[in-house]
């Protein structure tokens, strides 16, 4: 039986530093939007004898889907931010009215959204930048049996940090690989110091 997940507000950090007029409620509502979507979709899939979406999607696709959905939902609830209308532009969320048509290939006024299954929020990016970066950590139950009794996808941590180029290390890649950058030890510590939501540890 599919279970609807709910955001537990006791795990939010009331002392978190939030830029661009963001509120903890914006994060709560965005996360709940995702939970409700997964409940609705998985209820329909299981009703047709199919797998949950959590079990169908490869990890990279799941992370991309969640990032896009969270970006759209935070934008919907935020007072000052909107989605960057430039395809694959940076950052994902930008301050309304700062850039023409609310679209910019590479801007500084906004928040980049990332998702990962890695506890602690360390995540690869396409390049080192000065930016506000928000990382949602989530958990997927892929082992419990029977499969239709598995726990729903759950957000376990959310971090937001004002990081700089100097907080990143570049990752070596082969000839066919895409160059990425990841926060180094001190950079990750900076990100984790401003935690927004933490249900574990």
Q: Give me the secondary-structure category.
A: alpha+beta
Low-confidence region ranges? none
What share of residues is helical?
25-40%
Distance between the termini: 29 Å
Strand order of the largest sheet: 1-2-3-5-6-9
Order of helices and strands: HHHEEEEEEEEHE
What gyration radius follows from the Cα positions, in whole Å? 17 Å
What's the number of extended β-strand segments? Answer: 9
Strand content: 15-25%
How would you describe the shape?
A: globular
Q: Please count the helical segments.
A: 4
Major pleated sheet: 6 strands, mixed
Mean pLDDT: 88
In short:
This protein is of the alpha+beta class and 201 residues long. The chain has four helices and nine strands. The chain is globular, with a radius of gyration of 17 Å.
Q: Could you characterize the architecture of this molecule?
A:
The protein has 201 residues and is an alpha+beta fold. 28% of the residues lie in helices and 23% in strands. The protein contains four helices and nine strands; from the N terminus they run αααββββββββαβ. It has helices spanning 24-47, 53-56, 59-77, 185-193; strands at 81-83, 93-95, 110-116, 124-125, 131-139, 154-163, 168-171, 180-183, 195-198. A six-stranded mixed beta sheet has the order 1-2-3-5-6-9, with helices on both faces. Strands 4-8-7 form a three-stranded antiparallel beta sheet. Strand 7 and strand 8 form a beta hairpin. Helix 1 packs across helix 3. It is globular and about 45 Å long. The chain starts with 23 loop residues before the first helix and ends with a strand.
């Amino acid at each position: 039986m599919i279970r609807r997940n709910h955001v537990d507000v006791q795990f939010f950090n009331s002392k978190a530093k939030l830029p661009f007029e963001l509120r903890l409620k914006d994060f709560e509502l965005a996360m709940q939007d995702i939970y409700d979507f997964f409940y609705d979709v998985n209820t329909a899939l299981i009703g047709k004898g199919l797998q949950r979406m959590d079990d169908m999607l490869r990890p990279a696709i799941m992370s991309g889907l969640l990032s896009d959905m969270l970006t759209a939902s935070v934008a919907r609830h935020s007072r000052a931010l909107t989605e960057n209308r430039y395809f694959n532009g940076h950052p994902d969320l930008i301050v309304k009215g700062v850039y023409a048509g609310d679209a910019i290939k590479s801007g500084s006024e906004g928040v980049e959204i990332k998702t990962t299954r890695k506890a602690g929020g360390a995540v690869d990016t396409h390049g080192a930048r000065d930016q506000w970066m928000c990382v949602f950590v989530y958990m997927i139950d892929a082992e419990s049996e029977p499969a239709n009794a598995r726990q729903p996808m759950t957000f376990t941590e959310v971090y937001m940090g004002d990081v700089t180029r100097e907080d990143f290390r570049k990752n070596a890649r082969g000839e066919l690989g895409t160059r990425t950058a990841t926060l180094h030890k001190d950079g990750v510590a900076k990100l984790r110091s401003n935690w927004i939501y933490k249900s574990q540890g």
